[in-house]
Amino acid sequence: MLDKPRDRTALATGLGWFSIGVGAAELLAPGMLARLIGANDTSAARKTLRVFGAREVLAGALILAGPRRSVPLWNRVLGDAIDLAALALAMRDREASRPRLLASMVSVVGVTALDAITAVRNARQQVTAREPVIESITVNRSPQEVYAAWRDFERFPRFMEWLESVRDVGNGLSEWTARLPVGGTISWTAVITEDRPGERIAWRAVDDAKVPNRGMVVFRPTAGGKATEVEVEMQYDVPGGRKLGALFAKLATREQIDGDLKRFKQVVETGEVVRSDASIHRGPHPAQPSAEVSP
Amino acid sequence: MKATCWRGKQDVRLEEVPHPHLLNARDAIVKVTSTTLCGSDLHLYNGFNPTMEKGDVLGHEFMGEVVEVGSGVTNLEVGDRVVVPFPIACGACGQCMAGNYSCCENTNPNAAFAEKLLGHAPCGIFGYSHLTGGYAGGQAEYVRVPFADIGPLKVPPHLTDEQVLFLSDILPTGYMAAEFCEITPEKVIAVWGAGPVGQFAIASAKMLGAERVIAIDRFPYRLTMAVEKAGATDVINYEEENVLRALDELTAGRGPDACIDAVGMEAHGHGIQYAYDRAKQIAKIELDRPIAVREAILACRSAGIVSIVGVYSGFVDKFPLGALMNRGLTIRTGQCHVHRYLRPLLDRIERGDIDPTFVISHRMRLDEVAQAYDIFNTKQDQAMKIVLQA
């Protein structure tokens, strides 16, 4: 079963309201606050506190607007750093109360730690369901032929370069192994949920997959019926904190699927994946024959 | 093997590179016997294409002998003498089936990148930047030819390399430019650029029955060749006269019925507009200098045809769209669908309708390629077409 991330927005919400509270005090009673934290209550100090107050209120509002996001919390960490720098500067003033300033700095450091912890936790919790990626291509063959080529899952690694292998184990089940960008592999089992020859195939990963995913491909004849429009919809859910899943999800981008479809078209239409002297290498490479690469 | 490598702006060198391998079943390896420099190679040479990598092997016009074939190539054998079209086409996609080989949907492995710049991707081309796939080119001792069962044309032994080499690009390109003009005897055709493609456009227009063909250039030796060899009936040297006024006079105010741009993105011109375009091109605000095509549009008869075979790569401005729209002009353009024209033009060469060797000005060795580029770029020594023997 896919474990659902528990709702952990309470801490972030608390920090958001805290930010707004501090900000309001800085804006409305800067003189009182200056004395409380131990700074010399000058007009310059009041002005600075008002500016900081506005920042705090905004930072708080941003957190409350998206308590699951980590960027607003990192924004607060940045603000904390500015506060600490300002407090350190205030120490230079002879009129200031050093013990009070020190105590203020200790409290800010504490809050900073809390902000950072919440930010990191939010980042780990993030992204549960992603938008499905939809890509399409026209293949110069009949829907029946294109369907047959797609239904032959075991041939997928030919044009999906990130797949290591696919094994059709019968009964609509297939075992998939993908290569991860950092090395190593990840495997899951998929089940066909709909199979209409010449029209559509739908599948999903079975329940205990590390990478919950589902997809559908639809084959439609073009106007005039000479070729086939292939439309693929894929969706990958990425459970929080699962590093392999998160890495894998990076593969399921529009660009990747677009490239996979282009190579699928090449294989169906020409019998092979088209290769140039530069394209057989990862990254930029001059267009000249290569000594080390063999087919 | 030795190959012509691009090293930077106006820097090409013959370097030692690995021998090509078969990468696909439908590949062949061709041992180059003759190759040549194309005007469009100069765009790369002069650094106008931003998708070049240092070390790219140049050259898209070449022919030679088949020395290795993949298991999927059944129509060629080792030892066959072939001329190879510059566009790489699969022969199976919708565009190839429709005869639009240079729009092949499958042969550009960098299609996704090309789509960002051009909307949709053009085909792969030998030795012609990474925008067209990153294929090693033919100014080399050996070339890997993908889809060798679709492109290469076997040539009969009684024809020399020089007679058939230009089937790889410029003869079909010039011919296609003329074919676009829907020529009938009474149509007046004007051709901007009397370089090798312009010469073949003029010769093709005559071959297709045009009575009057006007050549426009600034080099007297090119204009002389246009008249004496290609069959132009009139010439305009734009350094001596105003082209629009001269065309008006030559056509009694109608304008040419069809105008061919055989110049492209590095057009030369005069005055403020030229300085403006050149400055913008250097600053990379405008990729192409569209002086010839602007003039061709303004000159063309209302409801006439503007045929563009000069190469452009990006964006232009001050484009006379108002003239184009209000006067009902038709633009026809494209990289040449060489595969379409190979057989018919080979027949014409065999029949003696055209002898393409008239454009050859220099015969050099592949070893001298760096010097050849310099001569061709600066048009030293009345340079027209330089053939390199590998």
Features:
heterodimer; A: 295 residues; alpha+beta; 7-stranded antiparallel beta sheet; 7 strands; 46% helix; elongated; disordered N terminus; B: 390 residues; alpha/beta; 7-stranded mixed beta sheet; 6-stranded parallel beta sheet; 17 strands; 29% helix
Task: Describe this structure as you would to a colleague.
- The complex is a heterodimer of chains A (295) and B (390).
- Chain A is an alpha+beta fold.
- Chain A has nine helices and seven strands; from the N terminus they run αααααβααββββββαα.
- Chain A has a seven-stranded antiparallel beta sheet with strand order 1-7-6-5-4-3-2.
- The longest helix of chain A is centred in the middle third of the chain and has 28 residues, at 98-125.
- In chain B, α6 links the parallel β10 (188-192) and β11.
- Chain B is an alpha/beta fold and 390 residues long.
- In chain B, the strands form four sheets. In chain B, strands 3, 4, 5, 8, 9, 16 and 17 form a seven-stranded mixed beta sheet that branches.
- The interface between A and B is large, with 33 and 43 residues.
Radius of gyration of chain A in whole Å, from Cα?
A: 28 Å
Given as residue ranges, the uncertain stretches of chain B (5+ residues, pLDDT < 50) are none
Average pLDDT of chain B: 95
The strands making up the biggest β-sheet of chain A line up spatially as: 1-7-6-5-4-3-2
The helix content of chain A is 40-55%
Please state the structural category of chain B. Answer: alpha/beta
Strand element count of chain A? 7
Number of helices of chain A: 9
* SSE run of chain A: HHHHHEHHEEEEEEHH
The averaged pLDDT of chain A comes out at 87
Helix content of chain B: 25-40%
Helix count, DSSP H or I runs of 4 or more residues of chain B = 13
Largest interface, and how many residues on either side?
A-B, 33 and 43 residues
Short description:
The complex is a heterodimer of chains A (295) and B (390). Chain A has 295 residues and is an alpha+beta fold.
